Amino acid sequence: MVSLNDIQRAHAVLAGRIHRTPVFSSRMLGEATGTELHLKTENLQKTGSFKVRGVFNKIEQLAAAEWERGLVAVSAGNHAQALAYASFVTGVRCTVVMPEHASPAKVAASRAYGADVVLHGDVFGAFEKMEELRRERGYTLVHPFDDEAIIAGQGTVALELIADLDDIDWVIVPVGGGGLIAGVATAVKALRPSAKVIGVEPEGAAAVRRALDAGAPVRLERVATIADGLGAPMTGDVALAHIREYVDDVVLVTDDAIASALTMMLERTKLLVEAAGAAGVAALLSGALRVPEGSRVAVIASGGNIDLQRLKEVLG
Predict the structure, then answer these.
(1) Which of 40, 46, 51, 106 is catalytic?
(2) Residue 309's pLDDT is what?
(3) Is the pLDDT assigned to residue 148 strictly greater than 90?
(4) Residue 114 phi/psi, 5° resolution?
(5) Of the listed 87, 110, 260, 302, which one is catalytic?
(6) Which residues of the chain are in CATH 3.40.50.1100 domains?
(7) pTM, whole model, 2 decimals?
C-alpha cells in the first residue's frame, strides 16, 4: 500500500517539473449545490491533466536498463500525453497505444511531444495491442493507474489541496481506472481523516463501482461515455485495494449530467474542462451525491483536454 511518505517523496520528485495548480472557489456553483465549493484545477496542469504527476514519479523510479528499452503505455489520451511529455523532458523513448476513436487533439498532442503513437481498435483492443508490443519489444510498462508509483504521484494533488484548504469536509474525485482517487484518498485520510472522499464515474464506464460491488476487478463488456478520460475498461488490484481502504463511496452520473456541468463550469467559472473534469460537479448538481448544507467541498477538475468538435457537441 502507498503511504503518505511515498506521496511526500513523489512531491519532492515533481518539484520544478509541474505546476502547483490553483484552487478556485465558485460562489455560483456553491449556491447551486448548497455548499462552499472549491475547484482544484488540474485542467491547468502541464499537458492538461493530473496524469503527468504519476508519470514523472514512475519514470524517476525506473532503472537505467528500463529507460534504455523504452517505455510503453495504453491510454485514451491524457496518460498518453503525460508519458509523451515526461519522456521528452527526461530523454526516454516511448510508445503509446490509443484506441482508434481517441480524441484527435490528444493524439496530435502526444505525437507533438515525440511519442510513437499506435492507434488500434477500441479501448479493449488497445490494451491487448499494448501487451503485444511489450512482449515483442521488451518495453517497460508505465501503467495508467494500477501502479504504486503512479498512485503516489497522483496523491500529490491532495497534498496541495489540503495545504490550501486544511479544513475541507468533502473531496470529490473523477474516477476512471482509479489511480487518481487511490492516491488522493490515501493522502486525505492521512492528513484530514474526518473528510469524506467520494469517487464519481459515468454510468457507461463504471469499472470501479462494479469492482467494489463484486469484491474484485471486473472487465466491462462495453464502455460508452462522453467522458473518454474516465473510460477505463477495468480497474486493477493495486488501485482497488486503496479505494476499498480509503474511499467512502463511488457514485454514478449520466452523460447528460456531465455535459450540463461542463457547460455551467464554462459559463460561470470560465474554466474549460473536458467531460471527465466536470464529473465531480455533475454529481453535486444532479443530486447523484448529496452532502450536508454548507459543507466545505473540493472538487478535482481532473483535465481540460477537450477537442473542439466534442466541445461543440456538448454545448449544442
Answers:
(1) 51
(2) 86
(3) yes
(4) 110, 5
(5) 302
(6) 4-50+149-315, 52-141
(7) 0.96
